[in-house]
Amino acid sequence: MGHRLADVSAPARLAAPDEGIGRDELALATRNHGLPLETLRHEVSPPGLHYVLTHYDIPYVPPDTPWTLTVGGRVRRPLRLDLTDLRAFPQITTRVTLECAGNGRALLSPRPVSQPWLVEAVGTAEWTGVPLRLLLAEAAVEADAVDVVFTGADHGVERGVEQDYRRALPVDVATGTDPEVLLAVGMNGAPLPPQHGHPLRLIVPGWYGMAHVKWLRDITVVDTPFTGFQQSVAYRLRQDPQDAGEAVTRIAPRALMVPPGFPDFMSRTRVVRPGPVVLEGRAWSGRAPVTRVEVSADGGATWRDADQEPDTGHPWAWRGWRHTWTAAPGAHVLAVRATDAGGATQPMEQPWNRGGFANNLVQRVPVLCPEPEEGDGRDREGGDGPVEAESRDH
Amino acid sequence: MGHRLADVSAPARLAAPDEGIGRDELALATRNHGLPLETLRHEVSPPGLHYVLTHYDIPYVPPDTPWTLTVGGRVRRPLRLDLTDLRAFPQITTRVTLECAGNGRALLSPRPVSQPWLVEAVGTAEWTGVPLRLLLAEAAVEADAVDVVFTGADHGVERGVEQDYRRALPVDVATGTDPEVLLAVGMNGAPLPPQHGHPLRLIVPGWYGMAHVKWLRDITVVDTPFTGFQQSVAYRLRQDPQDAGEAVTRIAPRALMVPPGFPDFMSRTRVVRPGPVVLEGRAWSGRAPVTRVEVSADGGATWRDADQEPDTGHPWAWRGWRHTWTAAPGAHVLAVRATDAGGATQPMEQPWNRGGFANNLVQRVPVLCPEPEEGDGRDREGGDGPVEAESRDH
């Protein structure tokens, strides 16, 4: 390592064919985490199960630490608010499904080297906070406003440049009601946990996670398009580094399945018993309501409609689906796909982009239904009594 | 994949030299997670930050689901208790540092292929529950008891054998007071979260995580040594597969440091400013009190004593340490090591074992203190004002 700031950053790169996950990717994977897929059964994800991605460090903000939010730039009345001031505004609670824009990246080939998600970077919570448009109305946004820039307290280096985490929304999104953007102070009825932005974060229903700035400390209205790193360099859909690329915004439709049966510890392959197996999971889209969920038990060759749970009145949250499949002995590949009211659906082959963003490849779940002579309990440690079969371990 | 249960499991193996982390290891790393090291600043880890390792699936236990704990085997009065029955026993609260027995595995060479932890599989919580010895006294353990076997509701396959998660403690440990083993129903003043064993788990202060059986549903006292998979196959210190090996039990001493300064997103390399830098962290041992914490700023060539925080009256929990280091421009490797009252300390070169258990290699933290012309803010996006420097991004 040299002695200049630029020396801490390597250029963005793609993994070589068959290159395993590197130490740098693993260092991200051991600290950030996805939703264990069996916990899709929870309609609202407990905080420790909801996915987490932190770019730099989680800021340390002990309880009762004063916190100041400033609102400035192209506004007529700049604001400086503490949390008590903020709580004087009306608050609402919204159920929102959040998904990381990089979900599915580690399944791409070639693999963009970054946080190596498979399919699990998702979660749903009840967020409580103040509608952003009320605060911006109080500040009186000038007519020439273009973007509203949000700055978090998380601080680090990207490509040799020291920076705070910072993202912008177009002014019409920031002041609009569809979605109703929140300055959230609560998650699932409790104060925000440290890793979810304590004490204040942005929630932008329907948008990928990069928009939901955590540890929010400043809002600045600008009259030219914001070109910060996380807006113009990262989080763009591009085929090569020279492209300007398209901005990553709303969440593409996706369905996920609770992997049925039980797993092998290391291979994670699922085992089911022969007979009816209830397949269930959740489906969502940040663009339009999910109108169809289909399940395949033959790796995508044929599909059947799953039952969607009735509309629960939470337009920005996932909805449950369910389908009964009859397992026969053999190896199977289950799959599920969602289609939304805009006609968008999920691909069987993932279109590639250089950053590995906005993937929604159909989930494939390999399942073994053992031949009856193997699945009748003879190989089980324990059986009906808890410790009768130790000697059959190995 | 074949169609027999044994086909879902691959044999235990070691990674080839320079073999990257595989898809199987990644699938574990995206669902289990460590403690983000900057959150070592929290004396008690919030539940979503505390490390989690689940062998199979997290059982789904909705609130108010009936839960039964059975106590049987070599006891005179077999018990069948629900949670209300259990709460009629006296409860205590103990602060306990838990560490995964596989912490540090991914740093070994050759690397045992399993959950690929670096150094972060640790956390500290306040656990509330009933002392196990009170329950066993009620059940009246027979004089010929040898082991007490604990069975969780988590169910899966290991090496082709279907099983519940199951571990045993020697009867003298299970009925003793040093440590006071708990049947825990609460974590940090709240019910257990799903991933930490809701509604009931074992807590064995001072022991590695594999002993703390989650989702506990049965306790069986046996008169011969328990030889289940997690006792006799996994969690043994052995050099080759034929060794009987030594059981993994109590936690070896370890100190960890809050990585100072701020990180590069991808390399995770730390950047600090020149001048005094407070280094801080936590140190623990499951065997004896930590009596010394030393810090090195030259990769372990020379060491200085850190200040330990006074004894806080929590003998099974980590204790804080602190040391002020004066950073000079250049690249540095910081390190920290703990020594306990039994004289055990941390190695600079990790002794190897086939399962990758009970590692406590000295943590090394590469840090860059940039030359002043690079660290004076000229490269910072933002600087004092939040959005004044967008054009310097790229």
TrEMBL record, chains A, B:
Residue stretches making up the Oxidoreductase molybdopterin-binding domain: 57-229
Keyword Zinc-finger recorded: no
Keyword presence, RNA-binding: no
Pfam family, one: Mo-co_dimer
Keywords: Metal-binding, Molybdenum, Oxidoreductase
InterPro entries registered for this protein in UniProt: Ig_E-set (IPR014756), MoCF_OxRdtse_dimer (IPR005066), Mopterin_OxRdtase_euk (IPR008335), OxRdtase_Mopterin-bd_dom (IPR000572), OxRdtase_Mopterin-bd_sf (IPR036374)
Top-level lineage group: Bacteria
Biased composition (Basic and acidic residues): 375-394
Needed co-factor(s): Mo-molybdopterin
Renumbered residue ranges of the record's region Disordered: 368-394
Sequence ranges assigned to domain Moybdenum cofactor oxidoreductase dimerisation in this UniProt record: 275-367
UniProt protein name: Sulfite oxidase
